[in-house]
Amino acid sequence: MAAEVHHFSPPEIPEPTLLENVLRYGLFFGAVFQLLCVLAIILPVSKSPKADWVSSESKTWEAAKKPKASSAAQLSKKAKKESKKKR
């Protein structure tokens, strides 16, 4: 009995098909993309002064285009929101 030798061979695993490879790598890249999205939400991004200047320039341009009546309406809406916040 001790002289008997058992030859165990590993099970035969078929080569992955093209669809299985696409699925595997697609899931991998999807997981990496999700991690990047979560990190983008968690980690703060500092704004450059140039970006602030561009956004303020566009706001002043939009304010110049609007008529005075709409600015008065906006002021009344802001006053209403502030009074609701105080409650």
From TrEMBL:
It comes from the Eukaryota. The chain crosses the membrane at residues 25-45. Residues 77-87 have a biased composition (Basic residues). Keywords: Membrane, Transmembrane, Transmembrane helix. Residues 48-87 are annotated as: Disordered. It is a single-pass membrane protein. It is found in: Membrane. Pfam families: UPF0239. One of its GO terms (cellular component) is membrane. Belongs to the UPF0239 family. This is Protein MANBAL. It comes from Bambusicola thoracicus. The lineage of its organism: Eukaryota, Metazoa, Chordata, Craniata, Vertebrata.
